[in-house]
Predict the structure.
Amino acid sequence: MNTQPIGVFDSGLGGLSVVCHLRRLLPQERIVYFGDTARVPYGIKSRPTVVNFALEAARFLLQFEPKLIVAACNTASALAIDDLRRGLSLPVVDVVEPGAQAAVRLAGGGGVAILGTEATIASCSYPAAIRVLAPELEVISRACPLFVPLVEEGRGCDDPIVKLTVETYLASLRGRGIRVAVLGCTHYPLLRAAIAAVLGPDVHIVESGRETSLAVQRVLTDAGSLCPAGRKGSMRCYVSDNPDRFRGIGSRFLDEQLEHVEFVPPEGYIASPLVQGEGR
Amino acid sequence: MNTQPIGVFDSGLGGLSVVCHLRRLLPQERIVYFGDTARVPYGIKSRPTVVNFALEAARFLLQFEPKLIVAACNTASALAIDDLRRGLSLPVVDVVEPGAQAAVRLAGGGGVAILGTEATIASCSYPAAIRVLAPELEVISRACPLFVPLVEEGRGCDDPIVKLTVETYLASLRGRGIRVAVLGCTHYPLLRAAIAAVLGPDVHIVESGRETSLAVQRVLTDAGSLCPAGRKGSMRCYVSDNPDRFRGIGSRFLDEQLEHVEFVPPEGYIASPLVQGEGR
């Protein structure tokens, strides 16, 4: 047993959809979350920049002595997971691998669609992770760059712009034997119903958040590091900008109110230029 | 006469729509541009963070010894112009004031609509600038958060999602006596035709870029600091991330190819934490 917290980071709000599942599955755990709202989004940025940001976010979390870190951002998982694992001496759970495993489990030999940000899709991380597990599966990738701003603006599945956008991105996937669609961005679960409506009832929808929380449970169980059941868990959030906006929009991602949201100034998470320079 | 360059900065690409007008009006000038593509967009971020980013961008440009700096970002102009002018000992031209002046000139006593990002609209900078010049004018503000991602994705005025989004944001402005609409974000000129179609032929559209380049011409003329006419101007761009993406999308904002686009690592523009701490 280990009562140290679970550290979770994301480029902004989206990772809260992972936290939502973590809280349900492991209510006894303490969660410390870092949202890099000063530099959000990561999905249109380059690999070196995303690696740099992800390492800074993870290093910020180290001060809370976490027993495990979750890279709850698909872009960071896709572009920076190797650097995170190399740079940290504790378990790092990403969102890509659990999502890929679920896709393979559910595909039954049919096709898999990966929906994600520009950077996640360009990285080919999901197809690569699936290829290792099931090289014969057909994988089709679709960048859906408007989904994040649509969610951030608070538009829901019944919104006409959302419906038209989902149709525009995904209509061409119909009739191609797709059995599984992976929501490869933590914002996308909020558009799940609209996505499911376009893809049809025969397509399984995989939410990385759910799969990732199961992966966290497995890792902590195997290591004997779960908190004692019955203990009251907690949730603290730290953001690099705009705690009020985070609190307002963030509650849409969770079943609970965000109580503790604290601003972190740049000197709290940006490595000094010297250290950054050494790291490259 | 003064052959030092004009410094221009923006959160990313959008400022190139200002540069487009500058290049046409003052082809003899050297322009040095900084696009903060690692931290784009500014429009959903808080005032302290935008002030911090804008000061870092401007300080980066100082190494080129510019004769004038243009804050070619509506959000930075709206939130950080006072800090920029206080912090720099050279003329700083923003995009809000020239846009507000043009709106007042063209309104003829009718209403003015301001279209901008969340942060620009929340700052009330345009209404405040207009109130100083013409306190009797009615000003209606509309945040249009999807316009930037629509442009960044390369969608044009004929795109069905663009048309529906413009209609959704702006339809309620019809029949309210609007005579002028200010495109209060440097991305919006690329959606000009779609915006004009919804607002109707009686509404003047003001592009901050055009007005700002005229303001730059005035300031340099008054100071006797224009480059000699007939001299060949130039354009160099520096970005905090992803020069290839900048080159690709950036050309849509300009009439010319982007020849020189150079990556600047974090240590090239981020003030040391100590200096940042002192500044607050």
